[in-house]
Amino acid sequence: MTSLFPHDLQPSDVYRLLISIVVPRPIAWVSSLGADGSLNLAPFSFFNAVAGNPPTVMFSIGQRQGVPKDTLRNVRETGEFVLNMVDEALAEKMNLTSGEYAYEVNEFERAGLTPLASMLVKPPRVAEAAVTMECRATQIVPVQDTTYTMVLGQVQVFHVREGLLRPDGSVDATLLKPVARLSGDEYATLGTMFEMKRPNL
Ligand SMILES: Cc1cc2nc3c(=O)[nH]c(=O)nc-3n(C[C@H](O)[C@H](O)[C@H](O)COP(=O)(O)O)c2cc1C
Prior knowledge:
Elements: H1 11-21, E1 28-33, E2 39-44, E3 47-51, E4 56-61, E5 63-64, E6 67-68, H2 70-78, E7 80-85, H3 91-96, H4 107-111, E8 115-116, E9 125-126, E10 131-142, E11 149-160, H5 173-176, E12 180-181, E13 187-188
Antiparallel strand pairs: 1-2, 1-7, 3-4, 4-11, 5-6, 7-10, 8-9, 10-11, 12-13
Bound molecules: flavin mononucleotide (FMN).
């Protein structure tokens, strides 16, 4: 075994190591609106679901040259965001929206995506996304000793494209075809799936 202590490594090497180990990571493609109406869309792979009911999700946002990224600014200003799921067909467009654009830049336009009015929150959804979740932020938590800020939010409404929902109310992942992030610029699609029943004690 090679044992690596974070404090012996450069911060960028620690980051590279961590994100190559915690894989595959789902991608939150977050649309948000500023108080001035600026529209924003950006991907975040420090993302997961953290509680079932009310359905609660988190994603974590770093800084750009000491300044909060546009998504964090918007969530702070309005408390709302939409999570759009990234599938294989949308991977390239998702990547386009990850450019470090100026605040005024509308990434929907940059990537040729269609904003679709949400039902309960002001930020629009990505019309092309098969699954979207309208969310309200519940906690904005500085991540200790880092430049990251974790946003937690509750899903107000799920939107699922026709044909993706199974009779039991779950989304069929083989039809969703999600894209996950691995190390650096690497991504993954779904591999082999298998089932296991949990122990029945
Ligand atoms: C797949 C992918 C995942 C990313 N995950 C994160 C993340 O978890 N946290 C983060 O701060 N930046 C992440 N980034 C970089 C942001 O998307 C990028 O900084 C973006 O410009 C932020 O946009 P904003 O300033 O409009 O909010 C990721 C980029 C890509 C392509």
